[in-house]
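Subject line: Sequence and fold of a protein, written as structure tokens
Enclosed: The protein record, placed directly beneath this head.
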Amino acid sequence: IYNIIQFSIVHTLSPSATAFGGNFNKAALIFLTLLLPFLRVHDLPGHPYREVIWSAVIVNIAAFSYYSYLQIQAKKEKEERQVYKLEDDDDDEDSADDSDESSEESGGFC
């Protein structure tokens, strides 16, 4: 099931988003291990290292979330540009058709 989900993510987003997703899963697992003591296999390191691990996990999760947000925004902007481009192309074709009809009506061809 995991491979199917990963395959659909790769085709929907991008390979880099899938790599970030894998890192996010690792960060989430580390976060849960730090948060829930019964999941720990080993004892936590001493005082300064515990805070370093916490900050690294939180920054990793925040960076992935922000990257995903930027990807979604870029995708929306790209779709909007395509819609505007299609509308502009339709308007150009309509105005070209109107000018062809008016030239025929003004005494062009038999």
Notes: The helical segments are 2-12, 15-35, 47-105. Residues 4 and 10 are 10 Å apart (CA to CA). The chain is about 85% helix and 0% strand. The chain has a mean pLDDT of 76.
